[in-house]
Amino acid sequence: MEELVRSMAEELLGRGAVEDEVIRETAARLEGLVARLRAFGEEVLGETLPAIAFDPGHPAYHAAPGLPVETLERLGTAGGTGYGAARPVASPSGPEGAGTGSGRAAAGGDRERSTRATGSWAAPGRRVMAGGPLAGVSAGELVEAFRRGRMGVEEVTRAVLEQVETLDRDLRAFVTVTAEQALATARRRDEELARWRRGGGGAGDGAGGGPGPLFGVPVALKDLIDLAGVPTTAGSRVRAGHVARESATVVRRLEAAGAVIVGKTATHEFAFGATTDTPFHGPVHNPWNLEHSAGGSSGGSGAVVGAGLLPVALGTDTGGSIRIPAAACGTVGLKPTYGRVSRHGTVPLSWSLDHTGPLAGTVADAARVLEVLAGPDPLDPATVPATAQGLVEAAAAGAAGDLGGVRVGVLAAWARDRIHPEVEQAFAAALRHLQAMGAELVEIGGTGPGEGDFPAAGVLTLVNRLLALAEGGAYHAATLARQGGDYSREVRVRFELGQFLLARDYLLAQRLRTELARRAAAVMARCHVLVAPTLPIPAPRLGQATWQPEGAGAEPVPEALIRLTAPFNVTGQPVLSVPVAIGPSGLPLAIQIAGRAFDEATVLRVGAALERARGPLRG
């Protein structure tokens, strides 16, 4: 393996460009990952390994979690073209900050932050929460207030921008605040509303020409999502100065529904990390305790919604990047079914794993946003020809507190394996709430390759890592060769690692994915939703390297954060993270609810019921 890595490095980067130590380290990492992948391949696929390949006629293709054959094809290599209009290319004059340090020099700071000792969970810290009459107001309540004339869109937008200016000094959640653009849009919304009241129509796309479902609602975008005329940095020096020529499909749909875009939020570099702490921007702080992480990679979106600054923000999710910050910051986070929402105009990480979705203050708001975002897009070949209707009604039904007839599969093994006591207690309490509201709880095995079990989290997460490494490495290959020094060492190493993976192992990961998705579908046929903790730990402290599970060895925090979320990107099914408690440490704790493909309605119904049982997070 070492000689293979050396020869490929010389071919890609030139002789002598990579030190022997780096080659040995890369070879060792690859050997470990590939050995595990091949072992799982033999265990799970056995004799069928050579036969599955990418043949749409193979039975395995027809048995993913409710996904039609054409969608399952898009989960594989077919998704690699078309949706990523955003490219990792610097501006013609070169990126700002170029030459300020090589990837190796920047990496030193990363390494220092990653080796802080782990002490008691809750470090002393200060909360940062929005105040005033708009704090905690939902998107639905805002739309109704505008419709009834109780407040104006420009008035609300100014109030939001003032709070952002004050509170983001501590949170560091925004990369760009588009104040002038937002105020101009807000004034147009007020004019549209005035015309509608006079009987002229034109207020969004609501029924009868009335206010649209997000009319006047302030929304932020993760800084992977293009907004015309505004930089999309993807959290990296590589794209500093890159300005989007056109808006992403999801942005156009938000604006058509009446939303007001107020800015771009911080992301982990190219979304390849779970802490949103980068040399380019620095760390995003958790609003519940500024000494703790907001999670990632959509950490900026999680922080602004968690602080009550905005009712809604958009994120992306490749291994949990919507759900991790949602859990860490006490917000709702929804990863839709793969193919439900267009990713055109969004900087990709891994085309067969990437999802776009909302982080919101309430389940009803997440439902409202998904109804707006969902639908086919010819510019993203992975999207399916179906819209999402009735989701707000499903959330309302759940909020009534009746889950009679809902069969809930409990991934008990996931909830016992290296779980922090605070999370364990919150999860147990959530199960009691579900049962009290009439849900039937069924324990589901999730530890091995057995046909009756949901696939083990470790197997699914390994497949996720291999696919992300290979696809991310392929996407960034040319830019790494030109601007390798502008990446942080952490992310550069990951993308370079992906370039050394063999095609046979990438195909093996996709074959494993197909078979594991089939087995997941068999489990989902027996229950309406699955539940597990979103994270095994509360939000980690900034720079925390490891945590110490009881009776086990120390676990790296980045691995812990994705351990229970990454599996569902492999299966492609919809997943909702809902905060269920504030733990003794003063940090939010969450449960994730996974459903059958394209059945976000049931997921939202169960989530809204838990939200009702929990009560307000802020006393």
UniProtKB/TrEMBL annotation:
GO MF term list: transferase activity
Segments forming domain Amidase: 155-604
A Pfam family this chain is assigned to: Amidase
PROSITE patterns with a match to the protein in the record: AMIDASES
Region Disordered: start-end pairs: 78-120
Family affiliation: Belongs to the amidase family.
Protein name: Amidase, Asp-tRNAAsn/Glu-tRNAGln amidotransferase A subunit
Organism of origin: Thermaerobacter subterraneus DSM 13965
